[in-house]
Amino acid sequence: MERYDIIIVGGGPAGLTAALYCARAKLNTLVLEKKMPGGQILNTERIENCPGFDSISGLELAQRMEQHARRFGANIKLEEVKEIHSERNAKVVKTAKGTYHAGAVILAAGGEPRWLNVPGEKEFLGKGISYCALCDGPFFAEQTIAVVGGGDAAVQEAVYLTKFAQKVYLIHRRHSLRAKKELQEELLENAKVEVIWDTIIKRIEGKETVERLLLRNVKTGKNSPLEVSGVFIYIGFVPNSKLLNKNLELDERGYIKTDFKMLTSAEGVFAAGDIRFQLAKQITNAMSDGTTAAIAAEAYLKEKGLI
């Protein structure tokens, strides 16, 4: 059974930043990532809002962050966490390949946007399909784009995207929006926005990038094409907290609750990044959370005499 000072669950920007800070503090650090380091940024073709880079691909940024953490001694393993529990002063983390002990754990497993699950969605991810207007909106200057959804996030982002796009279609499967009244009013008053009611996307089409959508009216059953160069999908976000929620306090949406130190309701367990609720799901937010969690976790380990 391997023992570490700290185990970080998740290798996205929050987890890799936490790993960097922990490793630089000379903590014996393990990062457990079920797929490959990078998290959601691996789905991003270009990133232009990360300080220090005019433009960088999500893959390259992930690789640089991984190399940086490894250079200071962080150990990164590609293993999916199956269970976490406490034994005396230790946290026990089980994967399909082994069992690990640590004095503290940082949960940075992130989450995933809810997918439409239609043909073309996976193929055009990062090539016209986005789940983040703040990240990718500027790439669609003077173009025609679509936003999918009817809640606060969809309506807010549709309005935000009018700063860049020539035309924004909001596609909603019902005939009324779930968003707050004031957000709806702002949307409906914007001349650049057109709402397509009672409609779902059946297929996303194009050659190298998104070129059109095949829409279906749920009331009439009629299919129709819509020419767009981008699709922003806002039908929900699912934090990866299900595995860990037995002993942790969550909010009504399933996000882990933390204090300003990123400490959860469980002693010695911290959370960072998209697994906890944030106003904006951005790389810089995740990095900030990871930094705070690492510093707080080190202080906890010292206080408990575990390092």
What does this protein structure show overall?
The protein has 307 residues and is of the alpha/beta class. It contains six helices and 17 strands. It has helices spanning 13-24, 58-71, 133-136, 152-161, 181-188, 283-303, and strands at 2-9, 29-32, 75-77, 81-87, 90-95, 99-107, 111-113, 129-130, 144-148, 167-171, 193-196, 199-206, 210-217, 223-227, 230-233, 237-239, 269-271. Strands 1, 2, 3, 4, 5, 6 and 17 form a seven-stranded mixed beta sheet that branches. A five-stranded parallel beta sheet has the order 8-15-9-10-11, covered by helices on one side. β13 (210-217) and β14 (223-227) form a beta hairpin. α1 packs parallel to α2 (58-71), α1 (13-24) runs parallel beside α6 (283-303) and α4 (152-161) runs parallel beside α5. It is elongated and about 65 Å long. The mean pLDDT is 93.
SSE map:
Blueprint: E1 2-9, H1 13-24, E2 29-32, H2 58-71, E3 75-77, E4 81-87, E5 90-95, E6 99-107, E7 111-113, E8 129-130, H3 133-136, E9 144-148, H4 152-161, E10 167-171, H5 181-188, E11 193-196, E12 199-206, E13 210-217, E14 223-227, E15 230-233, E16 237-239, E17 269-271, H6 283-303
Parallel strand pairs: 1-2, 1-6, 2-3, 6-17, 8-15, 9-10, 9-15, 10-11
Antiparallel strand pairs: 4-5, 5-6, 7-16, 12-13, 13-14
Q: What would a concise description of this structure say?
A:
The protein is an alpha/beta fold. The protein has helices at residues 13-24, 58-71, 133-136, 152-161, 181-188, 283-303; strands at 2-9, 29-32, 75-77, 81-87, 90-95, 99-107, 111-113, 129-130, 144-148, 167-171, 193-196, 199-206, 210-217, 223-227, 230-233, 237-239, 269-271.
